Amino acid sequence: xxxxxxxxxxxxxxxxxxxxxxxxxxxxxxxxxxxxxxxxxxxxxxxxxxxxxxxxxxxxxxxxxxxxxxxxxxxxxxxxxxxxxxxxxxxxxxxxxxxxxxxxxxxxxxxxxxxxxxxxxxxxxxxxxxxxxxxxxxxxxxxxxxxxxxxxxxxxxxxxxxxxxxxxxxxxxxxxxxxxxxxxxxxxxxxxxxxxxxxxxxxxxxxxxxxxxxxxxxxxxxxxxxxxxxxxxxxxxxxxxxxxxxxxxxxxxxxxxxxxxxxxxxxxxxxxxxxxxxxxxxxxxxxxxxxxxxxxxxxxxxxxxxxxxxxxxxxxxxxxxxxxxxxxxxxxxxxxxxxxxxxxxxxxxxxxxxxxxxxxxxxxxxxxxxxxxxxxxxxxxxxxxxxxxxxxxxxxxxxxxxxxxxxxxxxxxxxxxxxxxxxxxxxxxxxxxxxxxxxxxxxxxxxxxxxxxxxxxxxxxxxxx
Length: 465
Prior knowledge:
Growth Hormone, Chain: A, MFS, MFS_trans_sf, MFS transporter, transmembrane helix, membrane
């Protein structure tokens, strides 16, 4: 049976994987107070658990892409989804700091692998004019997963198993509710494997692909091969070439510099509203609009650069033009801290988040535009590792900005960052949120200038080394 535009069914599956990825990731965050009470964990323990996850995530980024390149997109994606789903389910067996840390480390190893696999699926199924939009669609899955997670896991954790399903309460013991939340959300990933393994093949080997769609992809590949002199079909790069590539380092630094803006809105913005805008705990549901804006930015950024490609602009150049517009919008963050009302604060915040996510979609698309397909997973993973490193640095910087006294950093990873960047942290200490918003206003413009004068849009994959 032939299905018209089957490539969009493929990206719908990747979108669902991203939703499940973020639901599983957010389960611990959403249920943290209950889990900490049941397992006897203090705030320092929780900080270390979070950092253990980030360390695993960074490690996985460096190796998972190469695994996907070797296993293929279909098998590679399935391996990582299965691994993280089982890891999430095993979290139900945690009984203290050590076991919880082990399971969250395993979760981080599995979850990072979905993103190189997702980017590779886009390179296999989408022409250049649709790639950024496809990446925007599956990236939007992560924002939806973050919104959905509390509405899924909190009711599960609060269900009276002892009353309605006593055998489960007896089996799982103390904290049956939150333990069951981990089991069921993890199991959803295993169910997802069924349609993925059934449907995903390379376009030429899929029985669902129409002749029209095959021609669309073949014509697009021929045009891209001609434009790059066949560079995108090169043999895979070795680690030496990847790690010495100027383009790879430009993209990695671009993610490291700019991704902290999005991390800030995920992890610190609710605290900003609570302390600076006097929004009560129950009123912080308004932060759901952060993820709505992120979804809009994901789709808008992909659509805009795709529109430029359709009008004849080279793919890499089209991404940079959209990214310039995003960079010029980011100074709106200077107005966020000066806004007096909640509505004005949220409106201005929405503008910066749309810009930040549209930027993220296009810098992710640049990787697909300039790197040989055979090693795309490995390069994407290395570039994405810059994102998590940037997030760790941002967390430490903002923590120092909000601290009025010298304090011992909590968590082993924060201590390591403090050792490396101690003088900088002391210099910004006590600067408050205003200092971070001022810095965040120009991160994207600095990164854009680096990418532009690094001539990344002038590089074919063959010239990337």
